[in-house]
Amino acid sequence: MIVDAHAHLVPPDLLTAIRKDAAKFPGVRLIEDAGSLAFAFAGAKPTRPVSKPLSDIPGRLAWMAKNGIDKQVVGGWVDMFGYELPGPESEAWSRLTNDALLSAAKAERHFVPLASVPLGDGARAASVLKAAIVAGFAGAMIGTLPRGVGSGLDAADLDPFWKAANETGAVIFIHPSFDAGDVRVNDFGLANGLGRVTDAMIAMARLISAGHVARYRNAKIFAPIGAAALPFVLGRLKRNHAITPGIGDPVEALSLIYTDTIVHDVRVLKFVIELMGTQRLLMGSDMPFPIGDTEPMRIVTEAGLPKAQIDSINGGLAARLFRIG
What CATH number labels 3-9+55-321? Predict the structure, then answer.
């Protein structure tokens, strides 16, 4: 079984439900223009419009067939997770999203969904995560900024969420945000080319340093893009660990993190493998975004690995991690 372990989906039924139930979400402003739909949460600036490929299921299935992919792990779209909404409304928004993703996965068995949680409230996020696991999700995709620019996933009031992830053994897929507040990446396409990597790297470095990766080791923390480029700064993090008492060990943490192959250069992938091995490495595409890998199995082949490792990266590990039957 070939599994793409990193993709995004906004089911058409979710967009229909959002329009139908708009009155239930007073903190959400729908912005429609020429058939496109964007959102503004709790008075914040609008998101980008939902791109058509995010909801194009026939096109998605055709691409998967062309690439020989049997299953695709799909989270939602980080822009519309709605963390800015007040607690009850944010929880209802997450549950609406999860219902639509689960329904899409039941209708189209090629999809393996990851839940959304109201990460602005640790207790509510824990409750939604537990319910999602019971409903059949293997875990959740979360953004790096639970309370906007400058916030962190290691905040003390998020401990209930991390404890729930640990207790359930959930996969927690940590996905970078589009706008992490560094205006220097707003030109030259660097928000995608670099900004997402630095955002994920900082979020993960904080989780490692706070001790979360080791403390909640039964939670399966997934950091995409070659472990958020952490292998390339491991030496500096080791030195920082040596001179900063009480913080988490980055070497131990890196041995516990799962990641994907979306690095776009086989030399880079080989370096990630050299530092991390292949036991926690999964093939991914980041579909349908242009910065993703449109032929995601090619880089795995080009790495020249033994067949057993290739089989694990291309689907064997994902089948176990995401409980794919």
Answer: 3.20.20.140
Q: Which residue has the tokens 């299921």?
A: 57
Q: How far apart are CA 82 and CA 64, in angstroms?
A: 29
pLDDT tens-digit profile, the chain (325 residues): 999 999 999 999 999 999 999 999 999 999 998 888 999 999 999 999 999 999 999 999 999 999 999 999 999 999 999 999 999 999 999 999 999 999 999 999 999 999 999 999 999 999 999 999 999 999 999 999 999 999 999 999 999 999 999 999 999 999 999 889 999 999 999 999 999 999 999 999 999 999 999 999 999 999 999 999 999 999 999 999 999 999 999 999 999 999 999 999 999 999 999 999 999 999 999 999 999 999 999 999 999 999 999 999 999 999 999 999 8
> Residue 18: which of 53, 47, 60 has the closest Cα?
47
> What are the extents of the domains in the chain?
3-9+55-321
Q: How far is CA 203 from CA 196, 209, 276, 315, in A?
A: 11, 10, 19, 27
Among the listed residues 234, 232, 316, the one whose alpha carbon sits nearest the alpha carbon of residue 282: 316
DSSP 102-139: HHHHHHSTTEEE-B---TTSHHHHHHHHHHHHHHT--E
Tally of residues, the chain: 325
| CB neighbourhood size of 128 (10 A) | 26
Q: Are strands 259-260 and 220-222 parallel, antiparallel or unpaired?
A: unpaired
Q: Cis before residue 288, ω within 30 degrees of 0?
A: yes
